[in-house]
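Course assignment 3, question 2. Fill in each field.
Student: A.L.
Task: Predict the tertiary structure for the chain below.
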Amino acid sequence: MPMSAELSPLTLETEIPERQTPPLPQTPQETINAIIHYYRGEIGRMAGWRDRIDRTSNWAITVVAAMLSVSLSTPSSHHGVLLFAMLLISLLLLIEARRYRFFDVYRARVRQMERGYFAQILCPEGTPSFRWSVSVAKSLRQPAFLMGYREALCRRLQRNYCWMYLILLLAWALKISSPKISSTGEPFGHVRSWADVAENAALGPVPGVAVAIGVALFYAVVLYGSLHRATGAGELAHGEVHV
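Answer field:
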């Protein structure tokens, strides 16, 4: 068969000719088995994305620890190391927010199955509803993110990254307010005024006042994201145990 006539793995469903479809479950036992296997598959996907999120958080913690060691262990080290650490964990935060949006899709499916099906098996309450199965089927037919990128950023910032930013800010403030150390180990340039702090905060040709203003604006955005609450609770509306 010529290559042009072969079906690509990415061929759209509408482009595939009608053929015999796989048989659907015909008995309640077959349906239960299919649901169980599907549930296990969704658990696996959710756990995989959870592992990716944890990995990014671990990288961010490692970066903070390494940069703090470099900056604070040597009196002569430059405070720009801490500013660079802020930039690095911001990049990791952006990556983690993207991964969190994928994780949230699979978590929502799993939680809908647990609330609508497995909880009813263990302890039936009220009239059984099939809304959970309709919601899961709709998500399978047309997967879509359940939260925006900004909301995902705020959630990960509130969970972990706000504390990392706070530690870096305190270390940076300590660094620019400490006296400089000469090559002989003697301290000089004691900080006695805000002008001395501004001088220590200078970054190359950039004056210290401009650097301080930039850091203040950056942390104003971090504070806003840390205190921001989404209008819709989503999955967070069901219970208190969330990641």
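Instructor remarks: Residues 28-160 form one domain. The CA atoms of residues 147 and 235 lie 10 Å apart.
Grade: pending
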